[in-house]
Amino acid sequence: MGRVLERIQVAEKALATLRELAFLQDPSPIERDAAIQRFEYTFEAFWKALQVYLREVEGLEGAGPKGVIRLAREAGLLGEEEARLALGMVDDRNLTVHTYNEALARVIFSRLPDYARLMEKILGRLQR
Length: 128
Hints:
Elements: H1 2-22, H2 29-58, H3 64-74, H4 80-98, H5 102-127
């Protein structure tokens, strides 16, 4: 469980940085872009923590973010709506990593509060 806790702690630290910007009401373009960058690395830490948890605690091996999220749903760590939101989070992370579009950046920024709350909730479940 040591490696699991270590990964959870890394994800929680990343999430704390995301939360600093994700809930801003009227961010500047720089704040918005910084929040999206924080979302990208927070998501990476989140899904990797989930992957290690599934492997070490549940005995399940998942490859890639979508596979890990589907396995987490099957293992009962995510509800159906949470799994849908998490899969949407994967899609948004992929869009932010590979393209830049002003309109898309605004849309993704508007989703960050929901993503941050979801990651916080799931990380809390992993610790119990």
